[in-house]
Amino acid sequence: MGRGQRPAARPALLQLLLLPLLLPGCSAEPKRYEPTWESLDARELPAWFDEAKFGIFIHWGVYTVPGFGSEWFWWYWRQLKLPEFVAFMKANYPPGFTYEEFAVEFKGTFFNASTWADILVSSGAKYVVLTTKHHEGFSLWKSNNSWNWNSVDRGPRKDIVKEMEVAIRNRTKMHFGLYYSLFEWFNPLFLEDQANSFQTRYYPPSKCWPDLYELVNTYKPEILWSDGDGDAPDTYWNSTGFLAWLYNDSPVRDTVVTNDRWGLNNICKHGGFFTCNDRYNPGYLLPHKWENCLTIDKESWSYRRDAKLSDYLTIEEIVEQLMETVSCGGNFLMNISPTKDGVIPPIFEERLRQIGTWMQVNGESIYGTKPWRAQNDTITPRVWYTSKPKENLVYAMFLQWPSSRIVVLDQPIATVGATEVKLLGYEHPLKWTSLPNHGIVVKLPELTVDEMPCKWGWSLEMKNVK
C-alpha cells in the first residue's frame, strides 16, 4: 500500500474503535479503581444494598461450645485471664484443657442449611452475612491455609460456607454475604508481625490474603464484611490493593458491597458502607450509607447457655430499632447465633418470625424507601418517617397505638382533595384534617386487638403531602 493511501484508512480505524460506543446497548469499559482510598471511596454502592434495608448476621464458631461470656471467650480466658472465665474452666474442664479441644465438641450434629435458610427467609430479611472466621481463627470452610483448624477437618466435617451458599441461593432470594476477621488472636505469624510493630508482613500473604481471594472466587459473596484489624494499619493489610481487585477484576465486581473495617482508624472513614461501632445507631440522618449491626442478645454476638430472657431484645425493641435505622438512612443487620449443635435457638427463631410477620404488613414503609426531609416527628414521640419520592409517598411509622385513636403529626403538609392517608394492612382510607400552618391529624380506625394489622408498630402511608 502506498503512502498516499494511509490517511484514507484512519477514519475507518477510528470508527472501528468507537463502534462499542455507537452500537445500541453497548457501553464503554467500566470504570477502574485505583488502589487508593480516594478512588475506592468514590465507588457507588450497588443499588440493591440500599433497597434491601434489612439483613441477618450469623455468628457461629467454636466459641459456641463453652457458650459462656461471648465470642471473645478464648481471649478473655487465655490472654486477659478474667476471673469469671478462669473459674468457669476450672469448674467444668480438667487441668491442662486447651481451647483447641473445644473443636471436638463443635459437631453441628443438627446443622441443616436448608432449615436455616427457611427460618432466615421467614424474617423478611433481604440479605444474610455468615461468619466464615472469627478472631479465634477457626474457619467454616476448608481454608487451604487453616492447618486443619477448620470445619471440614474438625468438628462438623462439612464446608459450612458452601452448604449455606447453596441453600440461600437455591431456596431464597436473599443476597449472600460473608464476614471475615482479618487477624487471629494467637496466630504465631500475626503475633510476630505485631511484635515487630507491623514492620514485617509474614501473616497477610500467608493467611489473610489467600483466604480472602479464595472466599471471593469460590463463594462469590455479594457482601464482604471485614472485621478485626488487630490494631494494624490498612497498609499492613494491603486493603486498598485487595479492594481495587475486588471492584475491578473479581467475579462479584459489579454487585459486591463492603464495609469500613479494613485497618486501624479506617472505621467510619473509608470503605463501602459505614458501621462506625457495633450496635451503631446515631438517631439522625448521615450523609454516607451506614449499617446498624446489633445483637438480639444484648450481651453477646455468640450463643450463651446461661442467657436470661431479660438479656434478649423484645420484638417491640427490634421494630423500633429497625424503624429508626431506616428513617436515618441506614440498613439494619440483626445478629443471631446457633448452638454448637447447629440449632437456631427458639428465642432467635421466634424473633426472626415475628419481625417477618411485621414486615409482611409494613414492608412497604421499609424496603426501597429513602429518608424523608424529616426523620422523626417533633410533636408525637417515637414516630419515624421514610419516603418513596417517585411514588410521591411518605410513611409515618409509629410505635404506640393511642387510646384516643388520634395521631398528630407536625411534619406533613396535606392538601384537601389531593392527600390520601391509609394504614398499611387496613383496606379503607383514613380520615384526616390539617393543622394550622402545617401538620396533619389522622383518625385511626376503631379496631379490636385481633383486628389490628399487626401488634408491634404501625405505618401510615400518606400520598401527596409536601
UniProtKB/TrEMBL annotation:
Chain ranges of the Glycoside hydrolase family 29 N-terminal domain: 28-364
Which InterPro entries does the UniProt entry name for this protein? FUC_metazoa-typ, Fucosidase_C, GH, Glyco_hydro_29, Glyco_hydro_29_CS, Glyco_hydro_29_N, Glyco_hydro_b
Q: Set out the biological process GO terms recorded for this chain's protein.
A: fucose metabolic process; glycoside catabolic process; regulation of entry of bacterium into host cell; response to bacterium
Domain Alpha-L-fucosidase C-terminal: from-to ranges: 375-462
The Swiss-Prot or TrEMBL record annotates one GO molecular function as: alpha-L-fucosidase activity
Q: What class of enzyme is it?
A: hydrolase
Question: Where along the sequence does the record put site: May be important for catalysis?
Answer: C293
One GO cellular-component annotation of the UniProt record comes to: lysosome
Q: What is its EC number?
A: 3.2.1.51
Q: Which residues form the signal peptide?
A: 1-28
Asked whether the UniProt record includes Signal among its keywords, one would answer yes
Keyword Signal among UniProt keywords: yes
- Known catalytic reactions: a neolactoside IV(2)-alpha-Fuc-nLc4Cer(d18:1(4E)) + H2O = a neolactoside nLc4Cer(d18:1(4E)) + L-fucose; an alpha-L-fucoside + H2O = L-fucose + an alcohol; a neolactoside IV(2)-alpha-Fuc-nLc4Cer(d18:0) + H2O = a neolactoside nLc4Cer(d18:0) + L-fucose
Q: How does it assemble?
A: Homotetramer.
Which PANTHER family does the entry mention? ALPHA-L-FUCOSIDASE (PTHR10030), PLASMA ALPHA-L-FUCOSIDASE (PTHR10030:SF45)
The UniProt entry's sequence similarity note says:
Belongs to the glycosyl hydrolase 29 family.
Briefly, what is this protein's role? Alpha-L-fucosidase is responsible for hydrolyzing the alpha-1,6-linked fucose joined to the reducing-end N-acetylglucosamine of the carbohydrate moieties of glycoproteins.
| Name under which the protein is recorded | Alpha-L-fucosidase
